[in-house]
């Protein structure tokens, strides 16, 4: 079984990857191409599949991002590709819901097996171009979603930075605020007296709602920013919810998360 490479760099890439699998088959140079000769092709299906997933996939995505989407900054491309990789690993369920799941290893392994069965001598670029066409199309579908997610994350980070700057320049109107986020939302002052909703809303700086009304929660984020307390004690069972994560990102060391308030303690 021979696999032919037109690029020596690509042949060296594969050989280096094979070493990690304990496979030390050398390649031979034959005029203008390079040949791997395998005694038993089925021993190499998994190694080839993992090589494609962990090496060639990244190269393919970098090329698409650079040439079709004009992302010239490598750090930006890396962040987008990381999102694609997380989707491939099933870690971004909310994004996978938009594209459908993919059995990445199964898809690539099947293509590699079919490729190796097609002839006793095959070209590696043919595998990438033709046999893996479905896989590449699935990756591009993931890439579109990942780009949108990356843009939203960048916008979110700009939003968080803007609110931190606002908070930094704000004179504290409260030394401490207790906030309960459980079945309902309740504010308490530093003496643990309930702050009525009308009073809380009357303290909101209306400029905040004009800055980014789509993102700034008028019931919780806007009042807290307006009061700019030196310390916020947040009592909640929802420490992983997006709103709570946003509060953590905005208020940082000012915010302390505690278990929900027991009704007997109120």
From TrEMBL:
The lineage's top-level taxon is: Bacteria
**Which Pfam family, giving just one, matches this sequence?**
YtxC
* InterPro entries reported for this sequence: Spore_YtxC
Protein name as it appears in the record = Sporulation protein YtxC
Q: Which source organism?
A: Siminovitchia terrae (Bacillus terrae)
